[in-house]
Amino acid sequence: MALAPYYSVPSLKSSYWNGRVETMPREELDALHLRRVQAMIRYTYENIPMYKELYGEANTCPEDIQTLQDYIDRVPTIDKRDVVTFQQLRPPFGDTVVPGSEDYMTLRYTTSGSTGIPLQEVGFYTDPLNMWTWGWWAWGIRPKDIFYFAFPFGTFMGFWSAYFDALVFGAQVITGGGVDTKTRIKQIVELEPTVLISTPTYALHMAEVAREMGIDPAKSSIKFVSTAGEPGPAVPSIRRALEEAWGATAIDMYGISETWTAHSLHCPVRLNGIHLNENICYPLVVDENGRPVPEGEVGELVLTSYSAVLTPYVKYRTHDLVRWYKGVCDCGRTWVYLDGGVLGRTDNMIVVKGTNVYPTAVQNVLAADADVSENLEIHITSEGLGDQVQIKVEARPQVGGESYTRLGQKLEEALREKIGVRLPVEVLAPGTLPRYEMKAKRVFDHRQAR
Ligand SMILES: [Zn+2]
Description:
30% of the residues lie in helices and 22% in strands. With 450 residues, the protein is an alpha/beta fold. Zinc ion binds at residues 267, 269-270, 275, 329, 331, 333.
């Protein structure tokens, strides 16, 4: 079928949504970033009181930013605390938005923070950037696909943006809001969607419920499970669990609601990591002093987002820990690659005998063992000197109880080899650890409770 001339998608044969930007040589990409970062700094300085004040305190003005090094050296970082503080001065948005811009706000939402004061956010959905589509396209999802949103249309921002992007993508969209899990499964059987949009935990929960209903989800019409909201298919154990359950390809997306959307794309070749979408953000990976860490090392991801227009985030601290690589990827993309996706949060950083331990890295090591399921818990305590970590994993059903001790020792040895410290691992029978419906809790930081 011919499409109307105004409807434009990439060549159906191309694996890139926008090959020019996805494979842009680093030098050219950085030149583009510099122009965009300069424009964002000027825009925020001139229009948003919070930035004017923060730049003033840092003694920086737009003219000072002539290079990306100037951006690194001179532009102050902001984080959620700053934004909430400025919003509290004059709620709801205070001095964090362009004055008078309320008329243009299209979708409003709040996110909770550790301080208990919600962050007020607002979408301005022009979205020519259409962020989710880049990842879907890379994996071979096309407008002929049918999307099923196993999403209650609640407050999780990620799937609102996915929903709008799916519409723009040109796919048929089925909204699975307002119904229970069994009804969703019946709809999938009846309407035969090909793409399931869900959190990883809920997709696994759905598969379990389907099997209880006598329906094998692996034989359903679902070809892709596209997830977000928590560590996903870039972690091998989670990918394996999703792919086995649904007989489908599992795709990861990572984003933060502050930047409105998925700002990354699961690499279709190097499956254990994601690319930051450098068309919509400029990433830095920094140490605790805000200095960039060398390639291959772990640091905090700091972003300037080009996507949130009315509530821009310039040099925003995500508090997500990532291990970054540059260079041309095997998939052809030049965008920064984050190995293992998000490895943890700066607020539950673990140091055991002087070694940094990242929850996702632990998960990756355990996942490499075929005798272990994706259900695990990482408990962090602090007694005396340094942190202590206790890991609980569930064995797969085929592993006999008499082998649990040996399996635990094998896992401890693997952790020592890959991470550099021996962490105690307790192996439990299948079904011992709690199941979660929407988002799983895997890291338990008991240090905060002290
Ligand atoms: Zn890649």
